[in-house]
From TrEMBL:
SUPFAM superfamilies: Acyl-CoA N-acyltransferases (Nat). This is N-acetyltransferase domain-containing protein. One of its GO terms (molecular function) is acyltransferase activity, transferring groups other than amino-acyl groups. Gene3D superfamilies: 3.40.630.30. Residues 43-193 form the N-acetyltransferase domain.
Length: 193
């Protein structure tokens, strides 16, 4: 367990967290969805980009099985217990939304989201740091992330965290049901661990 702010903490998921799958899906969908007018939204790039409770449940099970790392940012209640999911981050050895496999030792960050009501409070940075620490523990040597190249504010944020734009670009392969509005390629950013 890693403390972030007094009312929040971040940890790897357990099977008991299956009960939070819908909350995690809702946070991801709000962060990237059409009703979000903030910097995290991808509504000008894709339609119907969302996740489901069942997909989050699968990520939880895969994390517990050791096939990936799923982190949840939790808000605590007055007694210090888990009150609600406030953020998510996944670390995988593959990427299904772009061309090609990752080189040996590379990990891909994904499904990074923070509850909209907690944006600009440092929680995303804390969640990212815990993710990087977990990657080191899992013997990853490089952290990769894909960002739509027109999301310059987000790319600048990642650069402040030590990521470098590799200048490699790849097309977005949308999940079933997602439609591309603007064919913007992904920028591949990397950080040595």
């Amino acid at each position: 367990m890693v403390a972030t702010l007094p009312d929040f903490y971040i940890r790897k998921v357990s099977l008991d967290d299956l009960k939070y799958a819908q909350q995690a899906a809702d946070i991801f969908n709000a962060a990237y969805g059409v009703n979000n007018h903030g910097w995290a939204s991808v509504k000008k790039i894709v339609n119907n980009y969302y996740t489901t409770k069942e997909e989050i449940e699968n990520y939880i099970r895969e994390s517990v099985a050791g096939n990936l790392i799923q982190l949840f940012l939790f808000e605590r209640d007055a007694q210090g217990n888990d009150k609600a999911v406030a953020g998510t981050l996944t670390i995988e050895s593959k990427c299904g939304c772009s061309d090609g496999d990752l080189p040996e030792g590379d990990g891909m960050l994904g499904r990074f989201s923070v509850d909209l009501s907690y944006h600009s409070k440092g929680l995303g940075r804390q969640l990212m740091q815990v993710g990087l620490d977990e990657m080191k523990k899992a013997n990853y040597s490089v952290c990769s992330i894909l960002v739509f190249e027109n999301r310059t504010e987000l790319i600048q944020w990642y650069k402040k965290l030590g990521f470098v734009d590799t200048m490699e670009r790849s097309p977005f392969h949308p999940p079933e049901g997602t439609t591309i509005i603007d064919s913007v390629p992904f920028a591949l950013l990397k950080k040595k661990l």
